[in-house]
Amino acid sequence: MTQDDDLFTNLINNNKNTKTCCGCHLIPNSPELLDYFHIPEWYKYNSHIVYGYRPTSNFKKLTASIFSIHNETFNIWTHLLGAILFIFLFIYSLIDGSNNNIYDNLSVDIFLISTIICFSFSTIMHTYFPMSKKICRILANFDYFGICLLIAGSYVPFIYYTFYCYFKIRTFYLIMLGIITMGSFPIILNHHCPQKIRSLIYITLGLYGVIPIVHKFIVMNHHQENIFLTELCLIGLVAFFYITGVLFYTIHIPEIIHENLFNYYLSSHQIFHMCTIAGAVTHYFAIEYAYKKHINYVCS
User: Fold this and answer.
1) Which CATH architecture has domain 72-293?
2) What's the average pLDDT block by block, 10 residues per block, for the chain (300 residues)?
3) Is residue 262 within 8 Å of residue 255, measured between CB atoms?
4) Can you give the pLDDT at residue 21?
5) Nearest-angstrom CA–CA distance, 196 and 276
6) Fewer CB atoms < 10 Å away: N or C end of the chain?
7) How far apart are CA 108 and CA 112, in angstroms?
């Protein structure tokens, strides 16, 4: 046993013997929580997360578990708070854009709604999937669908504003985005699909948005370099957050390094959640930049 293992074991034992220290609230000691080796096979999705699993239970108990510490608490609250944030941004968008072009508003609202749906589906999945094998599969499909919807919905306003005055090209890219997204559903919703293939699809969708911007600059000889570089930097930053999150999620870093230290906090899935929120917020500011740039804009 390593020194880190001794420290972790001592921390757990100390928490079991006290009810007054702050540490007992950070590392759960509930006898109901299970380890990886005592949960059903359908419940297992990451062998490097060993502790902190809730037992299979009913709707009421799983709802109450939102307010307790286990290995899904961080996952639940990151996307729950993310969903609430984007609900407020959506309301603000409706109020702020009430006097502007309806199609300009619609492109932004598609992104905001897709983000709310993605984060809401994720929150529901992480809360209730231990209910049963059937419920787990259904909620996992909703979660996968939400991720694709977020990626696709994110690029609708960017394509819309990138080709603001080029209706045919804009329509082409939006149709292609729809085809790629719809074509990915049968693969990602297949429970026999390897996680790495699913992650590769997410990365491919995440990189799709760079193509229209490069097209606008190179093929169409659009030489407004300052605007182009701003758009490219923003979309590049968004892609960086999304792809980084997927890579952490796929490789299982950091819990693959030490099985005891990341069961409850800062596991790969939690980092993935933080990256999706960072990407979505960055995307919102990028869209706001493009949106305000095109208010009352008249195509020549």
Assistant:
1) Up-down Bundle (1.20)
2) 48 43 56 91 92 94 94 96 96 79 85 96 97 95 92 87 85 91 88 84 79 75 62 79 88 88 92 94 86 72
3) yes
4) 42
5) 18
6) C
7) 6
The tokens of 233 are what? Answer: 């930097």
- The sign of the torsion formed by the CA atoms of 154, 157, 159, 162 equals negative
Q: Which residue ranges make up each domain of the chain? A: 72-293
CA dist 103 and 100 (Å) reads 9
Are the CB atoms for 268 and 255 separated by under 8 Å? Answer: yes
Helices (H), 65-132: 73-96, 102-128
Query: Which is nearest to 148 in space by CA: 181, 189, 180?
Result: 181
The pLDDT of residue 220:
65
Please name the amino acid found at residue 104.
D
Q: What is the pLDDT of residue 172?
A: 93
- Identify the DSSP state of 31: T
- Longest Cα–Cα distance of the chain, Å, equals 74
Return the residue matching tokens 């809401």: 120
Give, in order, the Cα–Cα distances in Å from 244 to each of 18, 232, 279. 39, 18, 10
Q: What's the Cα-to-Cα distance from 237 to each of 209, 210, 276, rounded to whole Å?
A: 12, 11, 12
Residue 262 to residues 52, 174, 254, Cα–Cα distance (Å) = 11, 40, 7
pLDDT score, position 11 = 45
Supply the pLDDT for residue 300: 67
- Could you tell me which of 253, 254, 209 has the C-alpha nearest to residue 235? 209
Helix axes 268-293, 102-128, angle to 10 degrees: 170
Written as six digits, the tokens of 167 are 């209706």
